Amino acid sequence: MTDTKRESTSSNRAAVIVTGASTGIGRATALDLASRGFDVFAGVRREADGDSVAAESSGAVTPVILDVTDAATIDGAALRVTDAVGDGGLRGLVNNAGIAEPAPLEIMPIDALRRQLEVNVVGQVAVTQAFLPLIRSAQGRVVNISSVGGRVASPALGAYAASKFAIEALSDSLRMELHQWGIHVSVIEPGSFGTEIWRRGGEAADSTIERVPEEKRRLYADLIAAVRRLARRTEQRGRPPDAVVRAIVHALTASRPRTRYVVGTDARIQMALARLLPDRAYDALVRRMLRSTG
Ligand code: NDP
Predict the structure, then answer these.
(1) pLDDT above 90 (res 2)
(2) What contacts 215, CB < 8 A, 6 or more positions away?
(3) CB 21 within 8 A of CB 53
(4) Is the pLDDT of residue 3 over 70?
(5) Average predicted confidence (pLDDT) for the chain
(6) How far is CA 140 from each of CA 93, 164, 182, rounded to the nearest angstrom?
(7) Pocket of ligand 1 (CB under 6 A)
């Protein structure tokens, strides 16, 4: 991994760290922020991913090893960034790392539920705790990546939705707690964008379902097939996450950042329908939508 940023951070450029920057929204955000002149630290779990994002940015992004479920790497990353930015602190923390563990709740192995919450919820709090002193020094900002799933739950995505509902609650508390230091907290709520999360979620679902006894699996065969088709379509459509990146940049740079950014027409429509329709009418609409994927 390159250490080139250690010197350049003393140049008073605003520094930002993005977790989960190996692929998707995190990687696109790290590259975009670097192109805008930020000193970007990209949290990755593997050296090869760090080298790849650094190379794509022509060395403008500094990778740091950061697994949000591993206290040692969180502490190591915080030390490394502290060392690099000194008194300048951090202008932004983008809590982006996340996974999807899709499964109907009745048959979801409890270890998969724990993993979902450990990565998407506990990990984000642990990272926030580690970097807040640096954020406070720079009167920086925290940007938490939630989802439309943080406002509306879907079948077979209950655990994921629970993790994102939790992010919404934690962000509200954090926003109020940090107000006294002038630290803004924003939540990004994207609809569906074509990143690795869909393929990875499909693989996670496959390995989960394999562990479920056949008779239980059969109970949910139709739902699982419909959700798989939807995920595959979203992945194939491959909508790039540019609009999500723009929302993150706004949250980090605007003089009046919003507390919430709903990103994508799909997310806006889904939230509006869930808000306006009675629960059972909304449920029926979701059932119809899932049937229509067949
Ligand atoms: P990707 O799968 O492309 O990216 C997920 C990132 O999180 C990867 O860099 C991955 O790293 C990282 N990650 C996973 N587990 C850990 C961990 N334990 N510690 C540190 N990093 C980890 O998906 P997206 O870019 O789509 O997802 C980014 C965020 O956006 C997530 O929070 C997701 O929930 C959210 N989101 C995405 C939507 C979409 O449609 N794409 C919609 C709404 C929200 P590694 O390569 O090492 O696994």
Answers:
(1) no
(2) none
(3) yes
(4) no
(5) 94
(6) 8, 23, 8
(7) 19-26, 45, 66-69, 96-99, 119, 123, 145, 147, 190, 192-193, 195-197, 200
